[in-house]
Structure formats: C-alpha cells, structure tokens
Amino acid sequence: MKRLALLGLACAVVVAGCGGSSNSGFPTIQAARTYGLAEFTPGQPVAAGKPVRVSFQIRLPDGKPLTSYRHGPGPHTGVHLIIVRRDLDTIIHRHPPIAADGTIAESITFPEPGPYRVVVDAYPSTGQQRNFQLFGSLRVKGAYAPQPLPAYRSTVTVDGYRVTLHGRPTLHAIQANFLTITVTDPSGKPARFTPWYGALAHAIFFRSGSLDYFHTHVCARGAAGCTSVLGAAKVTGSSSTPGKLSVGVLVPAAGRWRLFLQCRVNGHVLTAPFTLTVKP
Ligand SMILES: [Cu+2]
C-alpha cells in the first residue's frame, strides 16, 4: 500500500498524465485527457533474431500527436525507448529519431523469446512538464524460460571490460544515493568514457516483478540536463577520475532492483547489470 501511495505521489508531481501503464496485452490509445501511445507496432508477436520496426506516436491529451521534443546536448532530450524482458535478463535502450509528424521508429533485433516491457520516456519541449513515461508490451515468439534475478555480485565482466561496484551503500526508496563504480579495459587500465546518447553513463533501474522504472545519468563536466527528479528528490551522477563513475541511485520503491549500467568505451557500448536491494 505504501509503495502504491508513494508512486502515485511521484506521478502526480512529475507528470500530468502518468497513466498508460499496461502490464499485459498490447498498448492501446489512452482515454482522453492523458498522454498515450498511438499507432504502436508491432501489434503481433515477432521473431527473435530478425530486425523488427518498432514505431509509435505519443498522443497528447487533445488527441494530436506530440511533435515537439526537447533537444540539445545532455541526455534529457527526445524519446528514450527502453525495452526489457520481464525477467530483466535483456535490455534494449535507444533514442530513436522523431519524424516531423511525431512518428518515432527504430529497427530492433530482439535476441531472445519472451514477454517484453516497453518504456517510452519522453522529454517534450512544451509546457512545464519535465519528462514522462508511457508503457507498453510486446512478445517475441518462442519458448520463454524466465531467469531468476541473479544474486548480488560486485563485479561484472562485459567483453573483457571489468565493471566493479565499490562499497555497498544501504539504499532506500525515494532517497538519492551514490554508487562508486569503476570500469577497466581488457588490459586493466581505467576506461575512457565517451558520451553516448548525451551521457558518459546511463543507469537504468527496473524493479524485479513490478518492473517499476527509473533512470539516472552521469554527464561530462558542465553538461546541462543531467539531473533526474523523483518527487522532491534529485540526483546527478559525476565522473572526475578516468574510469570512475559516481552513479546516482534514486528509485521509487523498496525491493530487488536490476541496475543496467551503460557506457561507451573505445567505441563499445557496454551494458553491465547489477542486482541491488533497496530498503523502504
Ligand atoms: Cu539514459
């Protein structure tokens, strides 16, 4: 109950039309006076391993498509399309192009069968609104063997890069905290981060089971539009030493969370997943 009440509050503060969450079935056009996903494709299960065109528009409360999005440097621009398998085994994160008529489309190859949650995190340039999320789902054909959430591990190796979480702060819901994370390249040297989708690192959080979502960033020094806001709490990551990140954690509810840390090193985009426990 507490969790739901807090989430409701966060939605009311951050977003005018926080509706649109559908945990099952395909996205539908929302009722009047809320933002919604429209013209979402694919509307049918798709094959794994083949490119699929994922496309949609965001519909405004007045029924028109949203065509005006924030742009510029920094990560808080346009539309972030984040698709996770329900068991949090796979994540896809893109910032697709937006056509003049508001159509957003991206070609995506889904690696594995199963049910996926679609999160559209939008940064409109109009109104007072910061950003808001809309949700959908899609299914990739084939047998789905859900994986249990892995136990906590402090080091994850991706393509020879070692991503290590140092210390283990006690994390609480709706309280900003920081994780110190280092990344070394295959030769053991500190990684050099280069901006990807406007940030040195993206930290995408999903809660196991309910798939609640939050997203924070680490930006280059002096970058604008890098602070994530949840109700009255704010967090901005930083990186002052090569290979080292101070990653902001801010999540709406207690539980077990998957953190997908993404950064670009030597032209490589790395995705390092960590399991985190967040207390009430
Ligand atoms: Cu991001």
What is the overall silhouette?
Answer: globular
- Structurally, the number of domains stands at 2
Assigned CATH architecture of the largest domain: Sandwich
Total number of β-strand segments?
A: 19
- CATH class annotation of the largest domain: Mainly Beta
Mean pLDDT: 88
Share of residues in helices: under 10%
* Main pleated-sheet profile: 6 strands, mixed
SSE run: HEEEEEEEEEEEEEEEEEEE
Distance from N terminus to C terminus (CA atoms, Å) equals 12 Å
The third-level CATH topology of the largest domain is Immunoglobulin-like
CATH superfamily of the largest domain: Immunoglobulins
Strand fraction equals: 35-45%
Oligomer: single chain
Keywords:
binds copper (II) ion, Immunoglobulin-like, disordered N terminus, 280 residues, 19 strands, 5% helix, 4-stranded antiparallel sheet, globular, mainly beta, 2 domains, 6-stranded mixed sheet
Task: Sum this structure up briefly.
The protein is mainly beta and 280 residues long. The protein is built from 1 helix and 19 strands.
Walk me through the structure.
- Strands 10, 12, 13, 14, 18 and 19 form a six-stranded mixed beta sheet that branches. Strands 4-3-6-7 form a four-stranded antiparallel beta sheet, with no helix packed on it.
- The protein has one helix at 2-14; strands spanning 36-41, 51-59, 79-85, 91-94, 104-109, 114-122, 132-140, 155-158, 161-166, 171-172, 177-184, 193-194, 201-207, 213-218, 228-230, 233-235, 244-249, 255-265, 268-279.
- It is mainly beta.
- It has one helix and 19 strands.
- Helices cover 5% and strands 43% of the residues.
- It starts with a helix and ends with a strand.
- It has two domains: 15-140, Immunoglobulin-like (Sandwich); 155-279, Immunoglobulin-like (Sandwich), CATH 2.60.40.10.
- The longest helix has 13 residues, at 2-14.
- Mean pLDDT is 88; it is low at 1-24.
- Strand 3 (79-85) and strand 4 (91-94) form a beta hairpin.
- Bound molecules: copper (II) ion (CU).
- Copper (II) ion is lined by residues 75, 80, 197, 199, 202, 215, 217.
